[in-house]
Each structure stands twice: as structure tokens, then as C-alpha cells.
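hey can u check if this looks right to u? its 356 residues, i copy pasted from the old doc so theres a chance i mangled smth
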Amino acid sequence: MRRIGILIILVTVLSSCKSEHPKDFLTFSGTIENSKDSVMTILGEGFKKSIKIAKDGSFNDTLHVPEAKLHNMFSPNNGKGIVFLKNGFHLKLTSKASSFFKSFKYIGDDEGADSNNLFVSRFNFGQTSGSVEGFMILEKEAFLNKVNYFRKGMDSISDLYSNANKTMVKDSDDQNENFFKKLEDNYDVMHAQILAQKISEEKLKKGNKAPDFSDYENYKGGTSSLSDFKGNYVYIDIWATWCKPCIAQIPYLKILEEEYKDKNISFVSISTDDDRRSNGSWEKARNKWTSMVKRKNLTGIQLWAGKDDARFSREYMIRSIPRFILIDPKGNIVDSNAKSPANPILKEILNTLPGI
């Protein structure tokens, strides 16, 4: 009887010794074909790890992550990607430097491999959708069909990786559904905006009539309109006194104006200084313009858009300055987004203009 008791105790002790505690680390190894880097970095919330990459593209390291979640991967010349890390994983990756994250393939069908292969597959499938604008420009029925196609596609990918981490899959599902729902909720507004933008872009194509401007104050007196320059090429510089990149172009613009002073081209600078940056005062905005023209001894034709600035910017789709526009002698667009004075290519373009 005593021997049986000792045997039971011994079996219990041995069983306890064999029970495994959850691992507080994971291993991450693999190969990056034709790697251009000797190190890659993995970043997460409260976590950072640099992993050495051998000359043959192989790597092998042990990581301790605070919690199971997606982490960012950065390799300066290879590219960037995302990896789902969880202590206890034994990840083995194969990839190509030329396509980096798109080519990620994790070996095996355990939780670690399935979780990451699922995420890569969803990413690659999502890349085939094109831009958000490509969705929103579609008519309603085609738009809804496309959204449902990608919604079902994302779901079907999950079925291929049954061992993937359930929490990660749910988070990914929720994010995808929120994205699709946001597209659907904002379709009407965004469709109208993108359609209007496409129409405006079409109007600004080469050969189309340039949007007009009329009666802009001329620093030398009176007013000027685009029609005043008919018969000449017109190179328009859109700028403002507060815009440092605009100011940086001034020396180059002066050189151009001097070199082409006997040519069939007018250099017109239009200031977009407005009341918003002048404490609500149009008078102060105008004074800033006249002061800088005088102080910088600006040459060429200096105009101020004044209260027509908003319409002018809308017509020419000006979202940032400086912006340069080239118009032909008939008032048609040559380039609605022309090269800057500092760009040597501009002279080459100007010199090839017929009749300049």
C-alpha cells in the first residue's frame, strides 16, 4: 500500500515537471532574397527591436513582446511591412527585397503563420481595389457592387487560414467593415466632389481656354485682365507675401524676366494675399502686397487678386503655392501646372514655344 502511495506521488511530481509554462518569447527567422539592408527594425507600442540581416539575406532572432498585436517592420532600402507577434510563436518568413511586404510568406499552418499569411493576403487583395477616388467616381450601383465584392473577398480570405488568431481576425474584420461602411455613408458627397474635380481637371488640360481673370489691381496703376495679354504668351506666378517657397523663387523669376524681356511673353505675378492672414482686413492684405513689391523691387507685371482670390483659386484648382501657369497667345492653356523659375527645364520649354 505504501509503495502505491509513493508511486502516485512520484507520478504527480513528474507530471508537474512536464507541464509547460507559457513562453515569454518568440522566435523570428527567415530569408529576404537580395536584401539591400543589413538590419531591419520592428516597432510596436512600448517595443522596439533591431534584427540583423546576414549577407545572404537570412535572419534569426528572439523577441519578447509585451502583448500580442500587429507591429511595424522597417527596412530602409527593402521596404516596410506589418507583422503580428505573440510570445510563443516560431515565425519563419520568406520574402523578396524587390517586393518586400507583398511577397511575405510564412511557413507552416500554425497560429503564427496563419495569422500573418492572412494579413498579407488581405493587404494584397486590398491593393487590387485601386484608390478611394476610383471607388467614388463610379455610379451608385457599380460602387455598391464593388464594395460588396471586396467585402466578400476579405471574408473568404479568412476561411483559408483557420488557425489565425481570433482576436486579430476580429479586429481586422471590424476595421474593414468600418472602412466599407464609411465609404457607403459618404458616397453621395464624395461622388459629387470627385466628379466636380474631374470636370475641373478636364477644363485645365492643354489646349483648353484658360479661366479668365478681370480687373486685378496693377501695382503700377490701374487694373489688368488676362485678355490684356492676348497675343503674348503669359507665364503666371501665383504667390503670397507669407509664402517662403514663393519668395525663394523671386531671384530666379527676375533672371527669366530679364532674359526674355524682348520675347513674346509676359511674366505676370498674382498675389493671393487676403484678409484671413491680415486680421480680417483687406486693406492690410493689400498693404502687405504693395510693401513687398517695393521692398523686393519686384519686376514683371505685379497684380493683386484681392477678393477674387477664392474664385481664381477654385477655377485653377490651386491648393498650394507657389503655382505656375503657362498660357499661349490665344488665351489657351499650355500647362496649368508649369515648371518653376528655379527649374532649368522651364527655359528649355519656353525656348521651344512657337512664335516666342
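The radius of gyration is 32 Å.
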